[in-house]
From TrEMBL:
The chain crosses the membrane at residues 72-93. Keywords: Membrane, Transmembrane, Transmembrane helix. The keyword Transmembrane helix applies. It comes from Streptomyces axinellae. This is DUF3618 domain-containing protein.
C-alpha cells in the first residue's frame, strides 16, 4: 500500500482547514469591531486636550488666589499686628532699662 491519503481523508483535511480559516476570519472581524475609528480617536484626543488645558487654567487661577490670600494675610493681619506690638515692646524695653 502507498502512503497516499484517500479522497475522504483529503476532504476532511480540507474541511478542517476551511473551518480554521473561517474561525480566523471571524476572530479578525471581532478584533476590527473593537478598534476605534480614527475620527473617534481624534475627537477623544481633542476632548482630552481641552480638559487638560482647562485644568491647567484652573490650577493657575488657584495659585494666583493663594498668592493673593497670602498678600492679604500679610497686609491685613501681620503688618498691623507688628505695628501694635512693636511700640509696646519698645516701651517695655525702654521702661525696664530706666
Amino acid at each position: 500500500m502507498t502512503d497516499e491519503p484517500t479522497l475522504g481523508e483529503i476532504v476532511r483535511r480540507f474541511e478542517d482547514r476551511l473551518t480554521d480559516v473561517r474561525d480566523d476570519i471571524k476572530q479578525l472581524g471581532d478584533r476590527i469591531d473593537t478598534k476605534v475609528s480614527q475620527e473617534v480617536y481624534d475627537l477623544r484626543h481633542e476632548a482630552l486636550s481641552h480638559r487638560v488645558a482647562t485644568l491647567e487654567t484652573l490650577r493657575e487661577k488657584d495659585a494666583e488666589r493663594i498668592v493673593a490670600t497670602r498678600r492679604w494675610l500679610v497686609g491685613a493681619v501681620i503688618v498691623p499686628l507688628i505695628g501694635i506690638l512693636l511700640p509696646v515692646v519698645v516701651l517695655l524695653v525702654q521702661g525696664g532699662g530706666s
